[in-house]
Write a structure and sequence with these properties.
This protein is an alpha/beta fold. The chain has two domains: 3-61 and 103-234, Rossmann fold, CATH 3.40.50.1240; 65-102, no CATH class. Helix content is 33%, strand content 12%. It has a three-stranded parallel sheet with strand order 2-1-3, covered by helices on one side. The chain has a two-stranded antiparallel sheet with strand order 4-5. Strand 1 (24-28), helix 2 and strand 2 form a beta-alpha-beta unit. Helix 4 (105-129) crosses helix 5. The longest helix is centred in the middle third of the chain and has 25 residues, at 105-129. It is globular. It starts with a helix and ends in a 6-residue tail after the last helix. Substrate binds at residue 32.
Length: 243
């Protein structure tokens, strides 16, 4: 069993040992996320929650930059298009830039906005109307997308607070964060709910990976989970070559 599979199974057993009960599990349809979600589901006590896959939870799409090494700096004599035509992919630093056929960070944030409105808000409204204090939703996705999702949630909080973008360091493989999301009672009782819906957001855990303490890392990489042709694998892109 490869390291990636061991990490996923360890996470599932950790949640089981802590008695965590999920009401629903949403996952990206890419293999690593599905494997992790299935591991959580496998060790979940009965009744097991619904398991729903969504394309909107996929990792950022780098388009033609997928799997390509990148340059730290740009040749000032070349336009971005000329770089791409030569198979050169300079590191993108702004939120609006994207590689041909890919997504920018702002594109990713807009996709995260859709996930908040289509997945998270309905769960929050259901839990609030039923006065359920322990309504747990697992969202199994990928590092860059999860970062944007958390930032989008924080921006929905009219009270402010949270972590600035530059302060978020991402997640270890199968690491998890916990975000408590609620709604003001007066918003819930209003006859007309505004959009985007303001939310009460509080981050209580960031990049928890206690479950990995007992996992021995296998030599040669992340593990033996088979390659998924749909996977937007950023490791190849971030394998830097000299400028």
């Amino acid at each position: 069993m490869g390291t990636g599979m061991k990490q996923a199974k360890s996470l599932g057993k950790w949640f089981m040992a802590k008695g965590t009960q999920f009401n629903v599990i949403y996952s990206s349809d890419l293999q690593r996320a599905v494997t992790t979600a299935e591991a959580i589901l496998e060790d979940h006590s009965d009744p097991r929650p619904p398991f729903i896959q969504s394309l909107n939870l996929r990792e950022q799409n780098f388009g033609q930059g997928e799997g390509q090494p990148y340059k730290q700096t740009r040749d000032p004599k070349l336009t971005a298009e000329e770089h791409y035509a030569r198979g050169l992919f300079p590191h993108i630093r702004s939120r609006t830039e994207r590689f041909p056929g890919g997504e920018s960070k702002d594109d990713l944030a807009r996709r995260a906005e859709g996930v908040v409105d289509e997945i998270i808000v309905p769960c929050v409204l259901e839990a609030a109307k039923e006065k359920r204090m322990n309504y747990h939703v697992a969202i199994v996705s990928h590092g860059l997308f999860i970062k944007e999702l958390i930032l989008v949630l924080l921006k929905r909080n009219p009270r402010g607070g949270g972590i600035p973008e530059e302060g978020y360091r991402g997640l270890r493989n199968t690491g998890w964060s916990r975000v408590v999301v609620g709604i003001e009672p007066e918003v819930l009782s209003s006859t007309k709910i505004s959009k985007p819906l303001p939310l009460l957001v509080r981050i209580t855990q960031i990049n928890r990976h206690d479950h990995l303490d007992s996992v021995v890392r296998q030599k040669g990489g992340i593990g033996s989970i088979a390659h998924d042709a749909k996977q937007k694998d950023i490791r190849g892109f971030f394998a830097s070559r000299k400028a």
